[in-house]
Specification:
Subcellular location: Cell membrane
Helix content: over 70%
Largest sheet: 2 strands, antiparallel
InterPro entries: ABC_transporter_permease, MetI-like, MetI-like_sf
Number of helices: 12
Number of domains: 2
Strand order of the largest sheet: 1-2
Distance between the termini: 68 Å
Family: Belongs to the binding-protein-dependent transport system permease family.
Shape: globular
Number of strands: 2
Order of helices and strands: HEEHHHHHHHHHHH
Pfam families: BPD_transp_1
Keywords: Cell membrane, Membrane, Sugar transport, Transmembrane, Transmembrane helix, Transport
CATH architecture of the largest domain: Orthogonal Bundle
CATH superfamily of the largest domain: MetI-like
Structural class: mainly alpha
């Protein structure tokens, strides 16, 4: 009897030591995991979280970067929303956002659908060709466009002169009616391949059985597209439209280079990005610029929600 008791006690002691060693191994594994991922969180805190919090606080101050910041409450936000230049920048940004999103997403979807349905050979080559503009820097593309639409030596005016027989010296980049469409074309040309690649991947992920079942039920080509393809592509369309929205509200390089940093004639190319840059690094009103960055964040969130409601996709 006593031997059995001693045996049981030994087993319990052994199991206890095994459990303790297992717990220690798990704690050691967790420490290793946290040690491996800690650099990311440290860098995110230093270069992401802390600047975000600092920008939020600076937005309530009057600060030029040299003198001590002076707390002004909501004065910066009131000054922004009541400034006519802000209203014009919002209009130009929304104009470019709508035009570039409709053109880029629409053209990319059509091209992706045609490639997926009708192109058998050379798909990889076509993807590479459409992705090439994305490799160029936005400033480089803007310089190319400024050369194309130059008044005296531009290829566009040279082509029109050859067609009409008269010397055409139209100032495209100084035109209040043409500067925004030119920027829209630049954005669409640069990001067309990126959005097309998204749509091609989405179309290829749709099971072929769904198309076969729809055709067996008597659905025609348009009905198959409307009832199978388009609904299943809505999440990708939403992502594409959202990324286009964020890019449009962060637009800077194209209008800045095309207008030499002036915003164009009658500020026709002044967008929120160039207004933010000018407020911070020309006027040195960092408090106002920080407040403007948060206003831009709010506008991006609002238009993202609008996209989700229009496409009936839950955010």
């Amino acid at each position: 009897m006593s031997g059995t008791t001693l045996l049981d006690q030994g087993r319990r002691a052994g199991s206890g030591s095994a459990g303790a060693s297992g717990l220690g191994a798990r704690i050691s594994a967790h420490r290793t995991f946290y040690l491996m991922v800690s650099p990311f969180f440290v860098l995110f805190a230093l270069f992401g979280l802390i600047p975000i919090v600092a920008a939020f606080w600076i937005g309530f101050t009057d600060w030029d970067g040299l003198n001590p910041a002076r707390f002004v409450g909501l004065d910066n936000y009131v000054a922004i929303v009541t400034d006519p230049a802000f209203g014009k920048a919002v209009f130009n940004t929304v104009y470019i956002w709508l035009g570039s999103t409709l053109l880029t997403v629409g053209a990319a979807f059509v091209l992706a659908y045609l490639i997926n349905e009708y192109v058998v050979f050379g798909r990889s080559f076509l993807r590479m060709v459409f992705l090439l503009p994305l490799l160029a820097a936005p400033a480089v593309i803007a310089i190319i466009m400024s050369v194309l639409f130059s008044t005296n030596a531009g290829l566009v005016n040279a082509f029109l002169s050859a067609v009409t027989g008269d010397r055409v010296t139209y100032e495209w980049l100084a035109s209040t009616g043409w500067i925004k469409p030119i920027i829209i074309v630049m954005i669409a040309w640069r990001f067309l391949g990126f959005h097309m690649l998204l749509f091609v991947a989405g179309l290829q992920s749709i099971p072929r059985e769904l198309y076969d079942a729809a055709r067996v039920d008597g659905a025609g080509g348009w009905q198959v597209f409307a009832r199978v393809t388009f609904p299943l592509m809505l999440p990708i369309i939403f992502f594409s439209a959202t990324s286009s929205t964020v890019g449009a509200f962060q637009l800077f390089d194209e209008p800045y280079v095309l207008t030499n940093g002036t915003g164009g004639t009658d500020q026709a190319a002044e967008v929120l990005g160039t207004m933010l840059y000018r407020t911070a690094f020309t006027d040195f009103r960092f408090g106002m610029a920080s407040a403007l960055s948060w206003v831009m964040f709010a506008l991006i969130a609002i238009f993202t929600i609008v996209n989700s409601r229009l496409l009936r996709v839950r955010v």
